Amino acid sequence: MVALAFCETLSSLLIFLGVLAIALLNVLTCLLIITYGTKSSPDVDTLWAPLVIIFCTSLLTAELFLGLFGESVTATLMCLAVDLELHGTATYGPPTFHEKLDQIRRDRGDAGQAEIEMQPGDGEDDAGPKRSSMP
Hints:
By secondary structure, the chain is mostly helical. Helix content is 67%, strand content 4%.
């Protein structure tokens, strides 16, 4: 469950940084267009009003689109958690998912060691996943 929480937190952080970067880049682009593109910045009394409107609109739009990424991360992790709880190992999913999961295990050094497997019903206790040796 710690890995699930870590992945959720990491995806939320990346989404927040992405939304903020998109909004700030849009504000910077608007400022550059007003200043150098139209040469109308001396005619404008204040640049704050259009920049704040651009920032808020960009923030909302980016949050809508990048929020879908967050939902897909949550759905994928929940499917993996249910699969682990019901079957003990990840049995379902596309072959590319299993290849990547095996690569992560090899990189961590878990291939020769005992593999973490959840036994059915492990979700209720606080002891965490049980270790069982792989033949």
